Amino acid sequence: QEDERCMRGRQKEMAKSGSSHISSKSFYLDLHIIILKRNNNGSITLVHESESDLDREVYTSVTLKPGHYIVIPRTSGGSLNAVESDSSSHYSYHVPYGNGERLHTYMNSIFGDIFSKIDLQLNGQLSAQELNQFGEIIDDDELKSIKMADFFSEKFWNFSCDENGFTKYGFIQYLSQFSDDRIHNMLTKLGYNEDLYSTKSRVFTLSFHCAKNLRVRIGDAMKTDLNERAWDLMMDKHNQEFGATKALSNAHCIVFRIHRDQSHSVDYAAINKTDEYIEINFKQDQSQNMNFSPSKGSVRSVIPPRGLIYLASAVVKPGCGSYKYSYS
Question: At the top level of its lineage, which domain of life is listed (predicted)?
Answer without folding.
Answer: Eukaryota
